[in-house]
Amino acid sequence: MSESVLDPQAAAIDPTAAMFDQLMTDDPRLRLFAELMRAQHQASAAEPAEEVLRRLREQHERLRTAYVSLKGRSEQLAAAAGACPNCWGEKSACRYCRGEGTPGAFMPDWELFAQYIMPAVRRRAALTRTTPGGHTANPKEE
Ligand SMILES: [Zn+2]
What we know:
This protein has 2 domains: 8-45, no CATH class; 50-141, no CATH class. Helices cover 61% and strands 0% of the residues. It has helices spanning 8-13, 15-23, 28-45, 49-81, 110-130. Helix 2 (15-23) runs antiparallel to helix 3 (28-45) and helix 4 packs across helix 5 (110-130). The protein binds zinc ion. Zinc ion binds at residues 84, 86-87, 89, 91, 94, 96-97, 101.
């Protein structure tokens, strides 16, 4: 009898593998067929569908969480800048602004403006004040 590629322990817990074991005979053609079927079965069982589904659900949840977080931040920044929260004035088909919602198009939310925009304005103003002649340290910024 030739050596089998079958794993007896796997056959004990896997009924399909046990069926392939039953096909193992001294007939080399049937034996080859059984070993090929077994190899295909093992390959498909390498990552069970439930595991693939679980992994995809985890990825989906991580992406959804990131999307919700980034969408919320984008909406806050748009409100701070007085821009359309949907498209920032970049989509002429936007149902909120028809592409007219660039920053400053709407009244900014002053609380969000103070939180997100003012620190950058103060930083820029401080840089301008400390540079001789009121110029920025980086001429490309002007
Ligand atoms: Zn818009």
